[in-house]
Write a structure and sequence with these properties.
Layout (H helix, E strand, L loop, with lengths): L9 E5 L4 H12 L3 E6 L2 H12 L5 E5 L7 H13 L4 E4 L5 E2 L7 H29 L2 E6 L12 H23 L4 E8 L6 H4 L1 E2 L4 E2 L5 E2 L1 H13 L4 E4 L1 H12 L1 H11 L5 E2 L29 E2 L3 H6 L3 H24 L1
Parallel strand pairs: 1-2, 1-4, 2-3, 4-6, 5-8, 6-7, 7-11, 10-13
Antiparallel strand pairs: 9-12
Helix pairs in contact: 1-7, 3-4, 4-5, 8-9
């Protein structure tokens, strides 16, 4: 499977006006790609387009709610009219809630699924139809480590990311079976310093935050843009997330107990309770857009685990084998002493 160089591609990016989506758009423009930005807030889209165009970017915008079934067709139309089509489609848009499964109203459960699951489904199907006629390309779905391991207070979000994992795996198999030359990758971010906590609907009674350690959104952008040019099954964006998932698989019951003890405090910001007038973006877009969240904490700008995953599979296998051999030799020397 061969994918175009990034500078020769047109990218569709949903959820493009804040957080990971904005970081992906900025990085793509810096590397010479043309971009179609998708979000609900037309004012924020226009501002983002103007900012990127001022840096030499070639940008088109489409105001759309990915939860609407007809939105994907409109996005394809905008990309076709602006650039003659697209080469990579990035399903990044997402919403969330904080609170127990019982606290979150059913209509909010459904809304999280409408955006996080059905939005990815509609986008993936539209992208596959378009890319078949174009001779191939890439579909990149932004999932989460919470698709591997659920946590307290974010049950609906975790459930959607588990569903996106299954959707992505199924889509990959279907496209491989028909030899479509379409790469399908699932990117799994760890805790990323985006405005997610500020945008999510919060039922906890305390100000929400993302559990540390946090990574900069540029780490996700790095993973996503790599997937647009290199076929990969999945990529973890943030080593602490991958380590946490591995620990959970090795000791699931112990992880449950640790989550029960510390999972809720890790997602609550000490201080004043949430303001009653606070506005989330669950059902309607917020007026603000920002790259990073408001936790005022250090965010890691690199991930060794991600860089290892970017190595060619053969090279990575060789490196792991050599590392294992060196560790065994070191252990033998230690025992001899």
């Amino acid at each position: 499977m061969r994918l175009k160089r990034l500078q020769d591609q047109v990218l569709v990016i949903t959820g493009a006006t804040s957080g990971n989506g904005l970081a992906i758009a900025e990085a793509a423009v810096r590397q010479g790609a043309r971009v179609v930005l998708v979000a609900r807030n037309e004012t924020a889209l226009a501002k983002t387009r103007d900012d990127l165009a001022g840096r030499g970017g070639r940008v088109a915008i489409c105001a759309a709610d990915v939860a609407d079934e007809d939105s994907a067709a409109r996005i394809v139309k905008v990309a076709t009219e602006a650039f003659g089509g697209f080469d990579s489609w990035i399903n990044n848009a997402g919403v969330g809630t904080f609170g127990t499964l019982e606290q979150v109203p059913i209509e909010d459960h459904r809304r999280v699924f409408d955006v996080n699951y059905f939005g990815v489904l509609f986008g993936s199907l539209a992208a596959a139809r378009h890319l078949r006629g174009r001779g191939g390309g890439a579909i990149v779905n932004v999932g989460s480590i919470l698709g591997d391991r659920a946590i307290l207070q974010q049950g609906p979000y975790c459930a959607t990311k588990h569903a996106v994992q299954a959707l992505t795996d199924t889509l990959r198999m279907e496209l491989e079976a028909e030899r479509s030359n379409i790469s399908v990758t699932l990117v799994k971010p760890a805790s990323i310093d985006t405005p997610f906590a500020e945008h999510a609907r919060n039922y906890m009674g305390e100000v929400a935050r993302l559990p540390p350690p946090l990574y900069h959104p540029s780490v996700v952008a790095d993973a996503v843009l790599f997937a647009c040019t290199h076929p990969r099954r999945e990529l973890y964006a943030g080593g602490f997330g991958a380590i946490g998932v591995a620990a959970s698989k090795l000791a699931p019951r112990l992880t449950d107990l640790l989550m029960e003890a510390g999972g809720t405090p890790a997602q609550q910001k000490p201080g004043d309770p949430p303001k009653p007038t606070r506005r989330d973006n669950l059902h309607e877009p917020r007026e603000d857009s920002a790259l990073r969240g408001g936790q005022n904490t250090h965010a890691r700008r690199s991930s060794t685990v991600l860089q290892l995953q970017k190595m060619p599979p053969a090279a990575l296998g060789t490196a792991l084998a050599v590392t294992g051999l060196l560790l065994r030799l070191a252990a033998k020397r230690t025992r001899r002493r």
